[in-house]
Amino acid sequence: MLVIAGLGNPGKTYENTRHNVGFMAIDELSKEWNIELNKTKFNGLYGMGFVSGKKVLLVKPLTYMNLSGECLRPILDYYDADHEDLKVIYDDLDLPTGKIRLRTKGSAGGHNGIKSLIQHLGTPEFDRVRIGIGRPVNGMKVVDYVLGAFTKEEAPHINDAVSKTVKACEASLTKPFLEVMNEFNANV
Predict the structure, then answer these.
(1) How far is CA 11 from CA 23, 60, 116, 155, in A?
(2) Catalytic site residues?
(3) Into how many domains does the chain fold?
(4) Is 112 among the annotated ligand-binding positions?
(5) Where is the signal peptide?
(6) C-beta separation of 137 from 145 below 8 A
(7) 72-127 per-position pLDDT tens digit
(8) For 138-150, what is each residue's pLDDT tens digit?
(9) Which of 74, 121, 160, 179 shows the greatest Cβ crowding within 10 Å of its Cβ?
(10) Contact 28, 162 (CB under 8 A)
(11) Is 9 left (phi over 0), alpha (psi -120 to 50) or beta?
């Protein structure tokens, strides 16, 4: 089984914010793979289906970003999945807007959602797709920036990044993640 989680915050208020790009990617995967997000359990919204012969679980934690591990640990336990079965999609301030980077492990890098996951999983070793949202300018506070909407100029870059994320997730169904990582990171 493959568990793909997109991190974000629940509710209309946060729907199109930079911090919710993980949710945006899950929504796109849901459409692309025809997996309806129709179950709520473990403080998450999720759906299951088969893609390229593999069982896939798409998850949007509803715990708010900073508590994402409180949703994903119980889901992994319930479905008898391990951290090696998990792919996490989330926003990254340290990447330029619209760029993606894949990683097989690493620190939280200041991202509280990832910090929560590492804490609840007991390991930093899980696959990640980081989507760049850039850094705030003109003295804007980070919290205001990540909870702000994408500008008209940023939107096409984010849409492109979400499309690339879908392609990377699709590739990871049939290839080892390390190979997918090398392929997609080379094209960044």
Answers:
(1) 11, 12, 20, 20
(2) 19
(3) 1
(4) yes
(5) none
(6) no
(7) 999 999 999 999 999 999 999 999 999 999 999 999 888 999 999 999 999 999 99
(8) 889 999 999 999 9
(9) 121
(10) yes
(11) beta
